[in-house]
Fold:
Amino acid sequence: MSHTPFILASYLISAFVLLWAALAPVLSKRKLVRQLKVRHTRAQRSDVSQQHMDKT
Structure:
């Protein structure tokens, strides 16, 4: 019996794990930046509406 399928499977699994280890932080950073932009936009809108309420 040839060991080729086991070797190929281990290479594929290793490649997947290394790829995930490289991409996971990038994807997390993108998600965090997107959440911070939304939070910042909401805070700005809240400040503008609060200022508008203070003027009236």
About this structure: The chain has a mean pLDDT of 91. DSSP finds one helix and no strands in the chain.
